[in-house]
Protein 1
Amino acid sequence: MLIATVTDLMPATTSSPPAEDADNALARLASKGDMMAFEALYRRHVGRVHGVITRLVGGAGARAEDLAQEAFVRAWQALPSYRFESAFGTWLYRLAVNTALMELRSRRSQPFTDSGEDVFDDIGTPDSAGHATALSRDLEQAVATLPSRARAVLVLHDVEGWKHEEIATELDMAVGTSKAQLHRARRLLRTRLGEHA
């Protein structure tokens, strides 16, 4: 009779490197002009890059897509100077956030024309399967309607895990202002989600 334990069934070594090691290996190849390596990096990270940009710019679908592409173009251009001091993913997401923040800064100088309230129109309506709209969709839509600075602080702090000092530096505001914007964003979200529950 053969009795196997869990450790007997596990391979002695794993054949696939951790994600960070794989990213760094691909980034080294891409920094030397390897388009296939960069395409692999793109496929590995496009979802999160697009997600953070979408949340930061308020759900502007086509514009978020353009900004995600712009972030990857910037990454391709900056790869030769990437020093591998941090994980590639960290470097890329910081670059994506900066791309979105530049968009938000440029919007400040433009007149605001859309209140964004129309995103609430379909909350609670049945989807194609006859189910109510998911809470995550409601939350994403509510986040999209927040004022841009409050939304940026909320996304950077609560979603991306940045510290208030980092947010203050990136958004050119005082640490106290960052904390106040986070409080404001959370309060507005509670109100908006409560109104449309």
Protein 2
Amino acid sequence: MTLIDSALTGLRNTSLPEAVSVVLGLLYSILAVRRTRWCWVAGGISSAIAVALAWQAKLPMQACLQGYYVGMAVYGFWHWSRDAGKETAVTTWPIRAHVIGLIVVLALSMLTARVLASETQAAWPFLDSFTTWGSLLATWLTAQVKLENWLYWIFFDAISAFLFATQGLMFFALLMAVYLVIASFGFVSWSRSRRAPAPSS
């Protein structure tokens, strides 16, 4: 089966709730690039649907991850609403904070990878753990309006696309590739905004 055939098969087998979740997830990414607080509404609803879908699919860790995204959507909407009527200013994270954050992500990834390797039949224990913990960090950076969040998303979306593709989930691999492109545009857009006055919303 070719890549296109796999993608089309995945599309045909997509349920309505899953389709709505995916569309809202894409809308979240696009609105996040534009730095509008409504991205968090789209993202929160998308993740809430994903919680139910993951739980029904007997994927408790993914359900917990999506639950975290719902919580971050609430926090992100509140945080971005504090300067209502103005675009939230883009800031950067100090190098020291990046080093500490990555060390924590790596440590947690190795810990959960050992559990997955010994207690489950996970195909890629470390990479699966690494992308999960890295995504948590990237989501928090997005809520904090840190420019580097897009670099994290580019990196982790690329790994996720690889993981899904190797496991035959071509539709999700394609979705990650789309997220990767959006994240690239997001980085360029937010970088430009730091060199120019923020326009009125």
Protein 3
Amino acid sequence: MFRTFRAFRLATFYGELLDTHPDLVGANMTWNVQRGRELTVAGLSRATMLRAALAERISEFFAEVDVLACPVSQVAPFDVTLDWVHEINGQPQQTYLDWMASAYLISATGLPAASVPAGFTADGRPVGLQLVGRRRAEWDLLAVAHAFEAATGHAAVTPASAPPLGITGPQPGA
């Protein structure tokens, strides 16, 4: 559902740019526009039904839960020269979107989310925690994010001065 609507939006907003100035459009955007142009009415209808079902399930979940805490990303920060993470713990990532599924799966819900510093890997790279709140509960979510930052102190620590916390996780290409 997320990928369908994303491709639809990008084809709508950037398709003309790709047609008139392909030299200004990168490979990932070109790929997204092409996926959007391949969409069918049936595919968009299916994505609409999936979005409605997701909204119902997420409403049921948040009837019992105030905030969901989950990883910001499946990987720690990686080399800036790498275009995207092609493999996580031996698992190939088929597209440049795969490695960031933990973030876009939350985006698909339409719920407010905040990322807060949550520590560092053993080699000093920062990691984050994604906090997700109920629909229309942005202020409540911001209060939780603030409380987390105040309680942990992670927001005040920079990587260079951070003691390794022994946090380990999937590494690109590992």
